[in-house]
Amino acid sequence: MSETDEVILEARHITKTYPAPNHRILKVNNDISLKFYRGKTLGIIGESGCGKSTLMRVLMALERPTEGQILYRGQDVTKLKGEKLRCHRQKIQMVFQDPSAAFSPRMRVMDIVCEPLLNFKRIRKRDKEETARRLLQMVELPGDFVWRYPHNMSGGERQRVGIARALALEPELVICDEATSSLDVSVQKTVMELLARLQKEKQIAYGFVSHDIALVQAAAHQAAVMYSGNVVEILPGEKLGGSCLHPYTEELADSAFDFKKDFRNFSPVVKRDSADDAVFLPGCPFQNRCSRCMEICRKKRPELKTVEREHQVACHLY
Q1: E strand or H helix at 274
Q2: Which of 26, 135, 190, 253 could be a cystine partner for 164, CB 3.0 to 4.6 Å?
Q3: HEC profile of 127-178
């Protein structure tokens, strides 16, 4: 990103720990520093259990970090409490993975999308229908959907309602936590196009969490690759496919399905550690899966280093 890009939210050295068996400490997020820019998408990619969703909950102030700061336009929001914290929540909203679980089955769409506005006294009850129709139009749904219940809609339609609810308060940052993973591929495309259009119109910053490297490559301006609670590489989204450097990112890129891939020369995925092994090992968390592991990798944890413009990697090979 250029120096002129406007930073909305910055995570500085965020660490989130939980107690683990045998008196150990589990670092779900380990010294993570990231920036979210106005009108740009930061993709967070990694396999299940790498700490992506925990990081997003910390950024949303749903959980407090064990160490580090979260700066919203320069203000450390980790110190906010009570009404100040409640008001801050208007600025950052989330689109959840499963809209069926995110909605009350007893609430009509009108009530779902207007609930945030009523909570913050942005509208009066008598204005609900008009406001809901406007929000549904924004996400390309018919106005008469205001009277429907979640079970009367398809998965793609429910996710559009989720997007409408997230944007109702006009936030500056929207976290999409696996927001398309439960949708059919064709529906994924339309939802991603909708998100892109809304970002262009409203200059929203997105945090796009996914395990789909091809989707992040297509949608993200910048991508952060996580493994076992650590950010191991930060690079432009378009470089995820062919210009990545970390052995784990390369493994992710090789695992992406492509009809043009020559499977006769396809390398099997490296044997995976258990989560405990990866988190509690000294040195590089990827050491037991890496074919290029060196002695220093087993002793010293690599730090993110800038290898070229907008490209950082945490690997002793560089």
Answers
A1: none
A2: 135
A3: HHHHHHHHHHHHCCCCHHHHHCCHHHCCHHHHHHHHHHHHHCCCCCEEEEEC
Residue 3: predicted pLDDT: 66
Question: What pLDDT does residue 269 have?
Answer: 46
- DSSP annotation of 183 reads S
Q: Is the predicted pLDDT of residue 259 greater than 70, yes or no?
A: no
Strand pairing class (311-313; 92-95): unpaired
pLDDT in tens, 134-155: 999 999 999 999 999 999 999 8
The two counts, helices (H) then strands (E), for the chain are 10, 12
pLDDT, residue 180, reads 81
Give residues with Cβ within 8 angstroms of 42, minimum separation 6.
34, 35, 36, 205, 206, 207, 208, 220, 221, 222, 223, 224
Determine the Cα–Cα distance for residues 11 and 67; give it in Å rounded to an integer: 11
Eight-class DSSP state of 240: T
Closest CA to 30 of 57, 50, 7, 53: 50
Q: Are 42 and 223 in contact (CB under 8 A)?
A: yes
pLDDT mean over 30-43:
96
For residue 4, the model assigns a pLDDT of 75
Instruction: Return the pLDDT at 96.
Output: 87
Domains of the chain, CATH where assigned: 7-91+171-313 (3.40.50.300), 100-170 (no CATH)
CB 60 within 8 A of CB 94: yes
